[in-house]
Amino acid sequence: MTARIIKNARKIVIKFGSSTLADAAGRIDDALLASFAAAIATLKQNGKAIVVVSSGAQAAGLSTMQKWERKRDIHYRQALCAVGQVKLMQAWQSSFAAHGVNVAQILLTRDDFSDPIRSLYMRNTLFTLVDEGIIPIVNENDTVSVEEIKIGDNDSLAAQSAMLWNADLLVLFSDIDGLYDKNPHLFPDARFIGEVKDIAEVSKTIDTSGKSGFGTGGIVTKLDAASFAAGYGIPTIITRGYPSAFADLLSGAQRGTVFFEKT
Ligand code: ADP
Known about the structure:
Layout: H1 2-8, E1 11-16, H2 18-21, H3 30-45, E2 49-54, H4 57-64, H5 74-97, E3 103-108, H6 110-114, H7 116-131, E4 135-140, H8 146-151, H9 154-164, E5 169-174, E6 179-180, E7 192-193, E8 195-196, H10 199-205, H11 218-231, E9 236-240, H12 245-251, E10 256-259
The structure holds adenosine-5'-diphosphate.
């Protein structure tokens, strides 16, 4: 099912969570980013148009400003993201440059999406970049959006970007291969759910407590994002993010949960 949906999709928004891009110590893993860029460059060669939504600014900031690690003050967290965003983009830029692909940075806030004029500019910029073969890399503008640091909702940012760009598919890469009836990190007997047609109904029956060490959203924001995208006819795949994930999804070696558009 995941293979067919990916094959049929031409315009794909791919979201990388912090827990996918960071190593065990919570630092951005440059080698991993390089492998993801290689995989995306291959997708592009195969005719797919890609928009990336990348978390990880705070994690990247920590590798530069290590002495800020324990500072919990919100201003330091925002400052850390501002430093880290440069690092993050440097890593994406050099990783894609190795494949002759240019990247563009797009920093957005939730408010931007509720302003029709700004939305129009954002949409036009996204379309122009992709038409010109550039990979837009979207992140929340942490300097002006405090809630992002608190709830880390890049899943919703990805879903809204997918809506804005008229994507055919939203892929949320996480540290987990999909949705379970309860958190498998806490409950070894958790059951995998491969397909979800009615997100509201499934949400009522599953347990969503707990999240990974570096992720900030948990599975709930992914469900909300999938529900939002479904409302615009865009299916979502939640799956584990690792360099050969797309190839493995296509060959059936990797599974994911597919959320269908509403019928
Ligand atoms: P990311 O940083 O990639 O956005 P998160 O760590 O925020 O990812 O969210 C994924 C985590 O949500 C999983 O690793 C898991 O610990 C947790 N989780 C809680 N309930 C569930 C569930 N029912 N199914 C899958 N994951 C769940």
